[in-house]
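Batch job 17 of 40 flagged for manual review because the log was empty.
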Amino acid sequence: MKMFLVVAQFFRGYATLRTLYELSIPGFYQRNECKERFSEIINFFRNSSFTFFPELLFGWQIEDNEFLKKLKGEQPQGSIKLPNGIEIKKAKFSFQQNIGEEPTTKVISILIPESAPFFTRIDGNHRLSALKDIYEQEKQAGVKDSLLNMYVPFSILIQMKNDEAQKYEQAFFYLINAKSVPLTDEENLRAILAEDYFTDAEKKSLLGIDNLLTLNEVIERIKNQKEFKIIKDVFNDEIYTFSLNIIQSLPDGTVDKIYESLEYINELYEKNEIQESLKIIYLVLIAYRAEHDNDDLQKFLKWLTTTKTNHVDFSNVKSILESYEKNFSKVYKVFVAMPYISFKRVNDFNKLFKEVLDEISRNQPYKLELIPIMRFRGESQRIDQRLIQKIKECDIFIADLSECNSNVVFEVGLAEGNDKPKILIKLDEDNSKVPFDDANLDVKKQVPFDMDKLQWIPYSSTGYYNDIKSIMKNNIPEILVNRFGLIRKVN
């Protein structure tokens, strides 16, 4: 134990993670927990060859006004008991004078009975919070987890409980988190990769990669063969970091593919054909080009530059590529409900909607497919079951409410119940009353549907073909963007 200033004592020691977890809670000033990192922290402590648990820092504010005086007293031995049952024992110990220890340094032990947590976590809260699930599982199973048996170093800032003490805790938290200057990724990687102190197995474990040979070859080729403007300008000449990011994005990529892709993207950058500032943009372009030809890359680049703020997670290369794949591979099915007016009208509607869906999806990163209207192939089935199944399968539901056809109204209700995005149309000259049009329904003769909140769009009988096409072209792309997070047209 060491006296700190005049108002506090520092106690340094070792204890198990289980003990320190049980006796401490986060200080109110702690930042929000990043739970996504908890599994990474636990995996490191369980599996790393270089397990290291940095010193934890706690605050302990004591209400006994005489405690610090007794603790700082000159008697070499003795016990100090607190009202809550905690006992402080001073040990008989002295340092050799020639090592320069001051007489205010003491050796003590703290004996703590079972009690509620009373230490506040100043530094190390995330490391301890990551143990929560393990601690709860241990309690339920009744079997000790070896990780919680680990002894780790800690320090306790011991103070009398008052506003001044709280101020010191918060100041320490601020100074630890705000004043330190962490090493950059490049500095950390250089320390591991630049010299041969680590075995290949150790490097793989530390970096979390399998293709270490590819990483080393990419680094050497970039360092020795050519100066890339893109690495200098965008990646601040951080060759190690850049190379690791590329390897992580292309775990199966060869050195030749990666290098060729880098050369091509660098050439586009030097010609100002790519004018982006985000590093992730260039990483994903290099990763994509390594597996595709130049024509595909141009389509991908257009998509990429038009979708940065449109429902795409730009936190990592994998999420961007998955989003692109989703946009290009998905086929969106469209169901059209209409009254049976004539065989010719059914044929006209099939032709009309197939044409307009093809026109909407032409040169787009998605496809639209019409579920044939009143047409089927194969064995005869129950019509109602077929309709119900197709409505459940569709992505977009369209209904023509003309003539207030009861079957169509039923299908609208089914689509509403399955939360399908809908486009409702109706012949402008049609005077038949759809249930939500009629404010004077005779409930004894006709049961009204709860459709008063749904809007429909009118079309003309004389120009219905072009009218319906126009309605679809205006509304279907909006549904794809707003409901499914797809991109707008790339010209």
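Reviewer: the log was empty due to a logging misconfiguration, but the result itself is present. DSSP finds 19 helices and 14 strands in the chain. Unflagging and moving on to job 18.
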